[in-house]
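F.,

This is the one I mentioned.
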């Protein structure tokens, strides 16, 4: 294990990224445990308030992201880079745990919309994990020294894979586009398959093709029916079940 860590993480300079990812995941897990305990009325934890204002944990998260980000840029290497990477990871975990709150500009932590925070955290951790494992954005992986010298080939590779990801995004397949930026085959599959109903691609190219619209709608229905329930169960297990009756900030956690 030590040899693998030295060869694949330390020598390539990926240790700060590993520390940031570990801090990010650990912070999210601890934060969710604490908020679920507060929600259940257990433990010594409670909401943080200052002058009657409820302080969401996204606030210290933003501070830590700023400190960790600028600190990492300034230090670049050595012990300092590792310390600032941890600070950045902790801050990112706190911020993305309340991603839905930022998106909706409302306290939706325990509502249906709050699931978006869990999904963003999972996707972020997965993407960073892929980069940590050696996958480069837009498919420039396992490139030899000779191939690197051929800048034209690298540029074409990046451009084509970027185009595939962009096509997948235009077809309403956000997750596929994100992971396709790291794994080109995923983007290729998303680019060639039918678009989801309501996506920019469907509105532009399926408008006068009723059969294509019907087929796309049927495929989206079958996909959602198959995966929505399992995905929500996983989200509930990670972040807690949303409360549709929740109406406001007081005592939300």
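My design for it:
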């Amino acid at each position: 294990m030590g040899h693998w860590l030295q060869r694949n993480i330390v020598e390539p300079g990926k240790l700060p990224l590993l520390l940031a990812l570990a801090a990010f995941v650990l912070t999210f897990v601890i934060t969710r445990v604490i908020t679920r305990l507060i929600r259940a009325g257990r433990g010594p934890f409670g909401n943080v308030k200052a002058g009657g204002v409820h302080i969401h944990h996204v606030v210290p998260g933003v501070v830590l992201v700023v400190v960790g980000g600028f600190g990492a840029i300034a230090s670049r290497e050595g012990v300092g880079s590792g310390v600032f990477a941890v600070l950045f990871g902790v801050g990112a975990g706190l911020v993305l745990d309340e991603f839905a709150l930022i998106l909706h500009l409302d306290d939706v932590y325990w509502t249906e919309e709050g699931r978006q925070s869990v999904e963003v955290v999972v996707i972020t951790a997965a993407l960073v994990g892929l980069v940590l494992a050696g996958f480069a954005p837009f498919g420039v992986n396992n490139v030899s020294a000779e191939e690197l010298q051929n800048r034209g080939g690298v540029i074409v590779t990046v451009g084509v894979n970027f185009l595939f990801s962009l096509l997948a995004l235009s077809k309403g397949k956000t997750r596929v586009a994100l992971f396709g930026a790291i794994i080109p085959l995923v983007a290729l599959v998303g680019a060639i398959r039918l678009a989801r109903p309501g996506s920019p691609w469907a509105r532009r190219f399926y408008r006068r093709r009723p059969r294509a619209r019907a087929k796309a709608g049927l495929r989206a229905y079958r996909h959602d029916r198959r995966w929505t329930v399992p995905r929500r169960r996983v989200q509930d297990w990670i972040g807690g079940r949303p409360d549709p009756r929740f109406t406001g900030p007081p005592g939300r956690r």
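Residues 247-253 have pLDDT under 50 and may be disordered.

Talk soon.
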